[in-house]
Amino acid sequence: MIEFPRAVRHLALILPLAFATPNVWAQTADKLPAAAAIQNGKEVPWIYRGSDVPQDTEWLFGEMDNGLRYATRKNGVPPNQVSIRIRIDAGSLHEEDAERGFAHLLEHLTFRESKYLGQAEAIPTWQRLGATFGSDTNAETSPTHTVYKLDLPNATPTAVAESFKLLSGMIREPRLSPANISAEVPIVLAEKRERGGAGQRVAEETRQVLFAGQRLAERLPIGTDATLNAATAPAVQAFHTRWYRPENTVISVAGDVDAKELAALVEHWFGDWKVKGAATPAPDFGDPVAPLDADPANPVGEAAVIVEADLPRSMTYAVMRPWRSVQDTIVYNEGLLLDSLSQAIINRRLESRARAGGSYLYAQVQQDDVSRSTDATFVSFAPLTQDWQAALADVRGVIADAVSAPPTQEEIDREMAELQVAFASSVEQRAVMAGSGLADSIVQAVDIREAVAAPETVLLVFNGMRDQFTPDNVLAHTRALFSGDVIRATYITPDGAEASAAALRTAMQTPIAADGGARLAASAISFDDLPPIGKPGTVSATGPLGLLGIERVEFANGVKAILWANDAEPGRVALKVRFGSGYRGFSPDDAAYIGLGEMALVGSGIGDLGQEELDRISNGRKMGFDFAIGDGVFTFSAQTRAADLADQLYLFAAKLGMPRWDANPVIRAKAASRLAYESYASSPGGVLSRDLDYLLHAKDGRYLTPDPAAIEAATPEGFRKVWEPLLKQGPVEVLVFGEFDRDATIESLRKTFGALSPRNAIPADVAARVPAFPAAEAGPVVLTHRGDANQAAAVMAWPSSGGVANLRESRQLEILTDLFNNRLVDAMRERAGASYAPQVNSRWPVDVDGGGAITALAQLRPEDVPAFFAAADAIALDLANNPAGDDELARVTEPLKQLISRASTGNTFWMFQVEGSTHDPRRVDMIRSLLSDYTQTTPAAMQALARRYLAARPGFRLAVIPEGQELATAGAGQPAAAGAALTGR
């Protein structure tokens, strides 16, 4: 019998259907033969050959006679799930010139039809088994591999065996017919189109410069229009035959099944896989090569200026070395840890300089082994102005200092403390490592040709090399990171007159003086030295919340807390603070300060602590400070641990009780907003990011993305004027879920949130604000973008509602929108060759009594916008006029049931369900019907919802098309001219 975490053991007492099902594997009558290829005893598992890294004994490794390798592991997180990964050692770098895009096209074809699956049966088949397409069932193609992924919930013996069977047919015998290729190529081209635009052009040009002379420069996984359109069944079959071979395949499986049972399934379905002919060696990926005239001391090679009018300035240069496969030994990993610490020191210095008002918005260094093509150290930064030379000099000066003189021991100790807490936390949380992540870890290790290590091993290696973290050793590794065979650079700018390739190369070759001004001075800060929030408060009431073992605690000042101390997630504490009025609290003129608040409110500090001091005081601690603005509430949130919980509570309470108003974070946020604004116009997706919320809220100024003039007009003084009263306003609710000491936490709450001054009430008119929905219009709203001429986006939306009273109905709406989504994906793939981009979502605000919407969205060709409107209209009306079929409903409700089942094993799930209940106890009562609301319905109920929400009024329509084009028809044949502007733009 599986031993579930306590949270799951209690679930059957709450919900009408229990998630915790018995482990029936031991009861299976038709056992497979035992796995014969498991490597145990004295045999070194295949992934550890040549390595002295201690083996993670929870994995079973096997290597079959046909060359296929596998790794299996029993893991019960979440319960009753099995995660399968099948990695083929072939990606875009394995393609010949005429095959560009074939690895990715083959991934699509594998899902389309195969030995055991007819056309378009893969998605509905796994939906019936409870898997959601896109998250549970997916695949990826990279330059070096193709990986097929399945996270199978409700993993009964029958379902797991059937999944292995289906996957074996997909990998070994996909149906690569001319008809399937003709049907799938337009979908791949649609995906390529959706990825296009300024950002993609920059990525491609940057790749061509940085990896010049290597296969990586020209072989993107998406391929080219020419090669994809020329694809034939024999050519794609030849690619499959050449690379889809057992010796090129690794299968990793982690799940709530005995590892030997999983190994037996791998061997049963893949053990007889044979492919004729000898294996084809992987092509030479090539090395970065310096120009013949390069200075060995400063080998600057290719440099390019990339001009994109709608993108902000940014620069990247890379110090490149040839990639070589390594022996993954402990000594090698010790070197990686020293490399990591060296980079962390430089990055902290670069960030400190940016915070203080430097010439760049951000800067970062990062070593990366890229696609087995280069071992490179990348430097990237964003100049604040057109003076890129000054920004480059500032960044290079910080790096020059790092390679010329050793860091201080205090800097080293600071980064060691960060590594220590990260590695120790991984050990503490080993019991809740998700099977999907474990299965992925094998894939990642194989891709980079390294072994896999348990968290205890990583911590052991780190602790065993502490005496190696000396200033001289760190300096040596820093110098190695910035030594290489070639240096290449790209500068992205909206103005081509600012720079040339020659000027960029000259600037990179110019000697730079070391700048030690960004070195961080040693100054210890302790929470013990900080002033109290106020006089510790008193507990006025405690009692059960009425759910599981969750407790409600009230303080005399009005603060209320919800606590659940449990052992479901060892070493983790989830913390959330809800306060104030959210979007309701702003006026339409506050738009600039809303966005700036999301970026700068936390950084503006607390008490005597600025952002630098906040970083220092939390060093070596597991702490966070996320801030979000909701429809009716503001939230602080963090993932912490019991040892740091009291201080984490202090930080959050101090932000409310003694906020600081430093100007620099606001000034920096203004710069970031200005740089980002123009890029919105570069693609349909960018325009939607800028304007969709504003339009769907009936052009409410609070949801308007501020333009550069509005950003420029914002000031630090204005920022404080808007935010200071909001931090003092509205009730406070603190939620603490996880492994912590209940009594100690209540005492910490007394000293922090219980010590706050009484809160100001939210004004009645503010509390009553409900977001509006736009009135029905005769034709679509049409916006334009400055991106590629073959890109567009279309949106249809219908108003729903919000609030707690009809929360159960909102859950049924999730079923309806999933039905809508499945139909829209099928319709757009058939009508317009669209990829999987069409999506339908339901938004139902819980903290305000209204403002919800059902939204359907797709990115497509401009000429297909009318087809989208027609398809969405037809689906909405059909859902209202005709009941859905039972099988169609099951394909939605079963994945929802399994999604809730898995999510409910974590504390954040329960926190989300009960948050706000101290002020509205109905939320707790409604949890009892949660599972049935999401998974039990009828065709008649869905039809009634569709009539109420989809057929009661015409949907709001929005089209985003390229500048200079016209939308000839929209939906029901109504003409609409392009270029209609938003009010005030």
List the helices and strands and how they pair.
Layout: H1 6-9, E1 60-63, E2 69-74, E3 82-88, H2 102-112, H3 122-128, E4 137-141, E5 146-152, H4 157-172, H5 178-195, H6 198-210, H7 225-229, H8 233-243, E6 249-255, H9 259-270, E7 300-307, E8 314-322, H10 330-355, E9 360-370, E10 374-383, H11 388-404, H12 409-428, H13 435-447, H14 455-464, H15 471-481, E11 486-493, H16 501-509, E12 539-544, E13 551-555, E14 560-565, E15 573-579, H17 591-600, H18 611-617, E16 626-629, E17 634-640, H19 642-657, H20 664-677, H21 684-696, H22 708-713, H23 716-727, E18 732-738, H24 742-751, H25 764-767, E19 781-785, E20 792-799, H26 807-832, E21 839-843, E22 853-860, H27 865-881, H28 886-903, H29 907-914, H30 922-927, H31 930-935, H32 939-949, E23 956-962, E24 967-970, E25 974-976
Parallel strand pairs: 2-6, 7-11, 14-18, 19-23
Antiparallel strand pairs: 1-2, 3-5, 3-6, 4-5, 8-10, 8-11, 9-10, 12-13, 13-14, 15-17, 15-18, 16-17, 20-22, 20-23, 21-22, 24-25
Nutshell version of this structure?
Helix content is 39%, strand content 17%.
Structural account:
With about 1000 residues, the protein is α+β, with helices and mostly antiparallel strands. The protein folds into four domains: about 30-270, Cytochrome Bc1 Complex, Chain A, domain 1 (2-Layer Sandwich); about 300-515, Metalloenzyme, LuxS/M16 peptidase-like (Cytochrome Bc1 Complex, Chain A, domain 1, 2-Layer Sandwich); about 540-765, 2-Layer Sandwich (Cytochrome Bc1 Complex, Chain A, domain 1), CATH 3.30.830; about 780-975, Cytochrome Bc1 Complex, Chain A, domain 1 (2-Layer Sandwich). It is built from 32 helices and 25 strands. The chain has a seven-stranded mixed sheet with strand order 12-13-14-18-15-17-16, with helices on both faces. The protein starts with 5 loop residues before the first helix and ends in a 9-residue tail after the last strand. About 50% of the residues are buried. Residues about 1-25 and about 970-985 have low confidence and may be disordered.
